[in-house]
Amino acid sequence: MKTKIQAKFKELYGDGARLFASAGRVNLIGEHTDYNGGYVFPGAIDKGIMAAIKPNGLGVVRAFSIDYNEASEFGLNEEDKPAQAWARYIFGVCRETQKRGGKVEGFDTVFAGDVPLGAGLSSSAALESTFAFAINELFKNGIDKFELAKIGQSTEHNYCGVKCGIMDQFASCFGKAGSLIRLNCKTLEYKYFPFEPKGYKLVLIDSCVKHELASSAYNKRRASCENAAAAIRKNHPEVEFLSDAKRIWLEEVRADIPEEDFLRAEYVIGEVQRVLDFCDALERGDYETAGEMMYQTHFGMSKLYEVSCEELDFLNKLARKMDVTGSRVMGGGFGGCTINLVKDELYKPFVDAAVAQFTAKFGHAPKVYDVVISDGARELK
Ligand code: GLA
User: Tell me, what's the pLDDT at 210?
Assistant: First the structure.
């Protein structure tokens, strides 16, 4: 990837580019908790985005995507929003940097990635973080890493139509090889947990299902949570986010909110606590208990939050049947991957069975990715 990017940059724009990269992410547990002020437990992975970039002194951005084999050129004012969806991420990052008082001048860039698109591995956060980090370095803005993550998040909100939380951009800005990171999304306190489970592997099975309406369904889930939190707040003014609420406080307002919102909130309140219990289990080296919680998360995401689908439920059920330690749908849902914590000796039989049985049932093969927890945004020297 690196040589391809460098060669293309040279061909289009000449010498002297610097190289930056950032990563996609996995999340062990804590799903749809970030925008509710709860905990998440992600890590950056060895799949990401890489970009060659150099100021051009022209006041415009000239960008080339190797994966789309397409160029885009745009200015740096609000009305210059480019047509291509991929270019809008870069444009959004430029604009959000400017809104924070950062300097952004014209630059040339060529980039490529190896995060599978639509698999729930946050290819867009990898793209945003790469450019947020690179622009910060290039124009010496001195913006801190949290604000770089927020630049990516605001790009999603204001230029891509997804009201996402902070998890993905946080993971890709703060990722560290070999460590997962538990983040409190309310206080932004975080802690690295070295994660090298002896005798177990993490494997992702990608259903290769993508749902067109995923972003509007995602925004709808968020609105349900905010509605439930607002109802609870009437009785308990200390509830700023849904994660501040106790289960019994939710019961109190059950009759006042749509049943759907109740179920969504029930899932979130349970999930926030599960992250803490999961981390405790990991610290004790008790992977079996941790894995059981992944199944509980899957159940909640499927039956209460309703962001799973037939293909993901099938993979989850198969994992259970084969005694896989933990398994659940990962990320926003509506397609994408299951994340599985598997004993070494079960790895091959499980992966083989998943591929064969999934293919027989759905007529297309799932993809399998081994997970390596890696570094996030950085400059490549
Ligand atoms: C997507 C969003 C994140 C988070 C997850 C669900 O990945 O970008 O902010 O809400 O879904 O946990």
Answer: 86
In total, the chain counts a number of residues equal to 381
Q: Which residues of 116-148 are buried (b: 16+ CB within 10 A; e: fewer)?
A: bebbbbbbbbbbbbbbbbbbbbbbebebebebb
Q: Which residues pair with 203 in a beta bridge?
A: 340, 370
The answer to whether residue 108 is catalytic is: no
Mutation probe of ligand 1 site: the residue of 35, 124, 167, 182 with most atoms within 8 A of C-beta: 167
Phi, psi at 285, each rounded to 5°: 75, 20
CATH 2.40.30.170 matches 2-194+375-380:
no
pLDDT at 9 over 90: yes
Strand 39-40, strand 179-184: pairing:
antiparallel
Residue ranges covered by each domain of the chain: 2-194+375-380, 200-371
261-305 confidence digits (pLDDT tens): 999 999 999 999 999 999 999 999 999 999 999 999 999 999 999
264 token code pair: 């969504």
Q: How far is the CA of 122 from the centre of ligand 1 (A)?
A: 9
Task: Give distance in angstroms: CA of 4 to centre of ligand 1.
Answer: 31
Catalytic residue among 67, 108, 144, 168: 168
| Residue 122 CA: distances (Å) to CA of 15, 184, 278, 295, 331 | 31, 19, 23, 22, 8
Instruction: Give dist(CA 330, CA 205) in Å, integer.
Output: 10
Atom of ligand 1 nearest to the CA of 31: 12
Q: Nearest 5°: phi and psi at 166?
A: -100, -10
Closest C-alpha residue for ligand 1 atom 8: 164
Closest residue to atom 2 of ligand 1, CA basis:
164
* Measured CA distances, 269 to 126, 197, 242, 299, 345 (Å): 28, 28, 7, 14, 35
R_g of the chain, CA atoms, integer Å: 21
Q: Does 200-371 carry CATH code 3.30.70.890?
A: yes
* Gap between the Cα atoms of 9 and 193, Å rounded: 38
Residue nearest to atom 1 of ligand 1 (CA): 332
pLDDT in tens, 83-112: 999 999 999 999 999 999 999 999 999 999
Sheet holding 70-74, edge to edge: 70-74, 61-65, 107-113, 42-55, 18-27, 378-380
